[in-house]
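can u pls check wat happens w/ S-adenosylmethionine
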Amino acid sequence: MVQVRKQKIADQADRHHLYQESVQDTEAEIDFVEDTWRELRNRPAELLREDFCGTANTACEWVRRDQYHYAIGIDLDAEVLEWGRLNNLEQLDDEQYARIELLQDNVLDTQADLADIILAMNFSYFLFLDRADLLEYFQGVHVGLVEDGILFLDAYGGYDAPKELQEERECDGFTYIWDQDSFNPIDSLMTCHIHFEFPDKSRMEKAFSYHWRLWTLPEICELLAEAGFDKITVYWEGTDKKTGEGDGVYKPARVGDADPGWVCYIVAEKW
Ligand SMILES: C[S@@+](CC[C@H](N)C(=O)[O-])C[C@H]1O[C@@H](n2cnc3c(N)ncnc32)[C@H](O)[C@@H]1O
């Protein structure tokens, strides 16, 4: 009798699909961008540049929102861009598809058109490991924005952020595992991985790995100011009174809570 080896779920799963399902909430992100732009500017934003765009999921959400929205997604990695083109851009209608462009480029030396909004989300700029490189990136973004343009970033921290630990979260049909594998307190460099586990106990190990620096908010804000940004505001998440958890509403703040783990937005206005 021929023994048929049953395929494990992990062997068939698609890491980019799992990432989009577990890590990203592009609707909430673009809600925040649109609401904040509306509060700060008296004109509609049109061109959004998504730096470190990966699968360009967020850029697609931008072009879906309005017929006057255009997007440029920039990433170094041809493989992730191609996945985004096949799986996200192909879901757009022809008219929306015509308003998005993907560039395989380094965000440090891109010559993309001047944007109203530049996004660098999911902490991607943490990949710049020293001051000089992060400053160069912020200076490039400053040049890449129109006169009243705005840079939107996110950041994370809290007293659990530099710990070597693993956190699990149940998602639809799989478990997402965030692995803070190593942290060096001397240079603040850390290596983190994302693993996925499935109901048949199969695992996709190190589906994504990041070697980055755990930047602090004052360091980031000081570098943004040095790069020429006129106004830099931290938007801190409110607390749901019933659950004690974050309520998903981010407001300008000067004082944050000393939580074990927080995520915030930073909004840097060119003027
Ligand atoms: C953490 S993922 C971010 C994905 C996406 N922005 C999100 O919100 O989930 C980081 C991405 O940045 C890209 N990347 C890293 N360094 C880059 C650089 N210097 N220029 C352009 N892309 C870069 C990687 O290829 C990877 O796709």
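The CA atoms of residues 157 and 262 lie 6 Å apart.
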